[in-house]
Design goal:
Number of strands: 5
Largest sheet: 5 strands, parallel
Radius of gyration: 20 Å
CATH superfamily: HAD superfamily/HAD-like
Strand order of the largest sheet: 3-2-1-4-5
CATH class: Alpha Beta
Mean pLDDT: 87
Bound molecules: magnesium ion
Shape: globular
Number of helices: 12
Number of domains: 1
Low-confidence stretches: 1-33
CATH topology: Rossmann fold
Strand content: 5-15%
CATH architecture: 3-Layer(aba) Sandwich
């Protein structure tokens, strides 16, 4: 493969990440890449991204990893339900037995697998300008498959109860954004699409429309998910949180440095794998945005963060 500018890859993946709620960098000029000339503009993807997308799209390893995480999450949920002081939301503490139990989950690359449009955008050389329409068309297809283990986990969670017999309610906090669509009356067709996609996977529920919390659905529901977690925490004990991005769990990490992000990870170091469960996403995320546009420099640098948290 020809040596191509790494920043183009970063930009493409960062934009893909922005489809699910990150800060969007401005377009950058760069070398030619696959798809150039086809779209008549700047393609989103240059080199790279293929291996990460194929790992998600085609590997048994990814499926085994996500099944592993979801089965561990199910066991942790059972343990957490039994303890009225157990919470996965830092703003909650003390005896929370007055609140019914809930699980908070992200949608993209946590419950629904979007490797198909990722692959198509790489192959087609999708342009920056075409990305929002491409992403919205994908949502409108309502055909994303489930991440391995996710559907089994959600069904199991909804069947579980706390010691007072109250069932677990699953809330989906997603940065799929409410955007008007031509010819559609709904103010948030993306919510309808996501609900239909989940229902097609056997994950519908009578409260699903209320359980889906999209970016922009309310003015204060921005990319930062804290306001939505706090909204859930006002009425429910959040027993477990499942996502694929550090920002699904911790506030203020989208524009932080690598060191700051990892310091945030370490603030609740003992929650990972017990109250917080993170699915691997090598395709995009706030981690990639944080690395910046020069991946060669990032590769050449000494590891910026240690494996263990301070004091461990
Ligand atoms: Mg996600």
């Amino acid at each position: 493969m020809a040596r191509l500018g790494p920043f183009r890859t970063v930009l493409g993946l960062a934009l893909a990440a922005c489809a699910v709620g990150c800060t969007t960098p401005g377009p950058q000029p760069g070398p030619d890449s696959r798809g150039a000339g086809r779209c008549g503009g700047e393609p989103m993807f240059a080199a790279g991204g293929e291996r990460a997308t194929l790992w998600v799209r085609s590997s048994s390893e990814f499926r085994a990893a996500s099944q592993t995480i979801y089965r561990a999450a199910r066991d942790a949920l059972a343990a957490g339900l039994a303890d009225p002081a157990w919470t996965a939301e830092p703003s909650q503490s003390g005896d929370l037995s007055a609140l019914p139990p809930a699980v908070v989950m992200d949608i993209d690359e946590t419950v629904l697998d979007n490797s198909e449009p990722q692959a198509e955008m790489i192959l087609n050389g999708t342009c920056f300008d075409d990305f929002p329409a491409t992403w919205d068309a994908w949502l409108a297809k309502r055909s994303a498959p489930a991440v391995a283990g996710a559907a089994e986990f959600i069904r199991a969670a909804r069947s579980m109860k706390d010691p007072d017999g109250r069932p677990v309610r699953v809330f989906f906090i997603t940065n799929r954004e409410c955007v008007r669509r031509a010819g559609v009356e709904s103010a948030c067709p993306q919510q309808d699409d996501t609900a239909a996609n989940l229902a097609a996977l056997g994950l519908g529920s009578p409260t699903l429309a209320d359980d889906l919390m999209l970016k922009g659905e309310r003015p204060e529901w921005e990319s930062e998910k804290l306001a939505r977690r706090e909204a859930v925490a006002s009425s429910h004990r959040i027993v477990l949180n499942v996502g694929d991005d550090l920002a699904d769990f911790l506030p203020g990490v989208r524009r932080a440095t690598l060191a700051e992000r990892d310091a945030a990870r370490c603030t609740r170091e003992d929650w990972w794998g017990r109250r917080w469960f993170l699915l691997p996403n090598p395709m995009y995320g706030s981690w990639l945005v944080t690395l910046g546009q020069d991946l060669d420099a990032a590769l050449a640098a000494e590891p910026a963060i240690p494996g263990d948290c301070p004091g461990r």
